[in-house]
Amino acid sequence: MKHPTLVCLVAGMVMCWTLHAQTECRSAASEKYALGQFDEASRILKTCLPAIKNDNEKFQVHKLLAKIYIANDYYDSAAYYIREMLRTKPEYTPDPSEEPLTFVERFNEVKETFKHENLTDEIVTTATKRAQRSSDAPTTIYVRTREQILMRGYRNLIDLLEDIPEIEIQKNSISEFRNVVSIRGIAGNEKFIIMLDGVRITPPTGDPYTLGTNYSLVNAKRVEVILGPSSALYGVDAFSGIINIITLDATDVRRYNLSTSFGAYNTGDHSALLAASPARDVSLTLAGQYYHSAEPDFYNLYKSEFAWYREQYLPEGLVDVNGEPKQVSGVGDRKFEMPTFSYFVSGKLIFKDFEIGASRNMERHCSSVSVDPRYTLYTRDAFIAQTFQSIYARHTVTADDGRWALKSYLTSGQGALDPDSKFMNRYTEYEKGYKYQFSRSHKIEEQYERDLFRSTTMICGVSFEDLNALPKTADLPFRYDVKTPAAGQDIYYLNTDTVDAYGRSLRIAQDFHYLNYQNYGAYVQFNSTLVPFTELTLGGRFDHNTRFGGVFSPRLGVVVTPVPKIKAKLLFGTAFLAPSPWKAYSTFGSFEPAVTNGSVTGLQSPFFHIPNTALRPERLASLEGGAVVFLNTRLTVSVDAYYNRISDLINIQSPAGSGTFKGVDVTYVEKAINQGLAHMYGGAFNISSVHQIAPHNLNLQLSYAHTNGDIAGKPLTLTARHTVKASVDWSVHRFSLSTRLIFRTQSNSVITDAEGNFLQNNAFAVVNAFARYRLVENEMFDLGATLRFSNLTNARYYNAAAGQDSFYATPQDPIRIEGGISLGFR
């Protein structure tokens, strides 16, 4: 370095300016506090707080905020900031001769309880619809905070869920939805609900959906992941779990936050988060994220799996048609392409007790993902694009004494396939087979909360939901016109627009099933601590659906605290999963001419998946128990065990042998059926540890999960029996590094061999890492640099397939490196 003295001088000036600006901020707030202008003092401090990284200065700001809230008689809010003080300086004790007496008394009260609190025991709201410590929730719950999201570089929900114990993700597993999530052995993205600030942002009709880069965490304050049935509060489809993304308010972040990153395979990820508080009691946040990637060139990375592409399709244009090579035409240059595009936008406005919000997400990916290249075309024209959007309004009325509250909700959600979505595979005879699907929901809900006694609270509510759907169509010969009724579009099944030897038309018109139905719900829940050292949760919900009738879902949970550092849990819960329009009405297959003595005599079909409108809801009964042990304030050990029993399980790929469809002989007919019983059992062991050895901060997590069971007497699919996950988060001064390990044993795919045995992927281990360095940080702005490593060791590994034409073990991404910058300023 040519001028080290100059560099050190500039760095020193920047550091001094930063500390001076932060001190000036606190001084201005202190003046307002001394004048009794508490709201203005609070506003100044909350504006400065996100930029403060110095622990001593942060401690002083938290201290002043605690005093302000005590002066306003907001003791719960004051307790929050006192806890933040104790996280920074656990041994601090206020001097009664220098501090207000009310502050000293409140501080000592909180400090006494804080001795028994753990730094990993977060406040949650999703488990019982009321605020409580995660250890007090009767369910198994995992929380990831904003700090962890930034530390580990989680960009989207898939990144985060991959590290959650008892959750398994089969990536690149099925062409239509790309990734498949299993929770405690229950596989399927449609079997849990994703919410944004308590509002559902997955298809309201319960259809499977794309879960990839489209569910962004750009504005996430924390993410609460509930494992197990939750229909007793949330109704239909809260089957295997609930995921709630709680978003930031304007006071939580700087006014403008921008980030961008670029990496291998022409990958880019760009996001923006804007926050404003233009007036008192007003908070406005806007967020957006856009992702694009050409994706890895799998045909070069996995030469054995893509040998057909390189040796048959690329030079000759050959594909497999009923076991015989056949040349396809009109495809173009046969270039291998499987790009991904996605975006997410969200906005939230809060004014006093009124809140409105909206979000929209979309992902477009190759509709050949995971499929053997003998049976599909890896071309840019073959893609699936799915969009979901929601809007909501929420109003809360709270009694002056705080003993009751009435919450009113209006929500509307809409999901659709882009009408340009299409498959180009053996079911479409390698022609463009277009798809379309649509769903919409309008819902109103009233929820009443009341403190019945000092130790008992009640939550009850009613809801009404009106739903409309056009189930996913069969392969269409041309693009569906969303502005014209299907009856006016003359849509026929692929390859039926022909004539027989006598000139008679063989065209078969497609069926379209427009659905309109309603769901009525009512629920009640009691939480009581009447029995010493015990918290009881008792509730249930009744839903009546005009498609499949009524269902009652009860829940009973007990949390016992025999000593302050141990909490034992026991929960019995039930849930139901509606037979979605996608499962009940899905249709796909192919027709071809039937030829006798060289003449076309009609049509025939080698395969068709046909509708089954008589499907019944799946029902889940679950029993789980566990314990949380706080060995000290920085070390937690937890264990849980569960047993799930599912009745009327829907198998969407149940063979029915030969048959007919639309009067045409079909060699192999398939449809969804209620197959019978499934059983899952297992458990998990977790260790979480937080260490602060100035200036180093270390967060360690280790988990082991075991899952076993059967589906109608056969082994579980898409679920590993043994899973180990570990993470190390380390930060020192402005630098942080997060390293995460995932190890899984074999998982059964849905594909079987000739003897009917499920084919498996091999056990694997994958390491991911994320590094972040804050280049500049002060009151006005901060600038950071990031470096991301996915599959750090460049392992060649596979996940289990969820689609019938897929590789039974689907190839996964090689090492992917991305570098980026982030900028935040007022």
UniProtKB/TrEMBL annotation:
One annotated GO molecular function: siderophore uptake transmembrane transporter activity
Keywords carried by this UniProt record? Cell outer membrane, Membrane, Receptor, Signal, TonB box, Transmembrane, Transmembrane beta strand, Transport
Record-linked InterPro entries: Beta-barrel_TonB (IPR000531), Beta-barrel_TonB_sf (IPR036942), Plug_dom (IPR012910), Plug_dom_sf (IPR037066), TonB-dep_rcpt-like (IPR039426)
Q: Keyword Transport on this protein?
A: yes
Predominant location category = membrane
- One of this protein's GO BP terms? siderophore transmembrane transport
Write down what this protein is called. Answer: TonB-dependent receptor
Which source organism?
A: Chryseosolibacter histidini
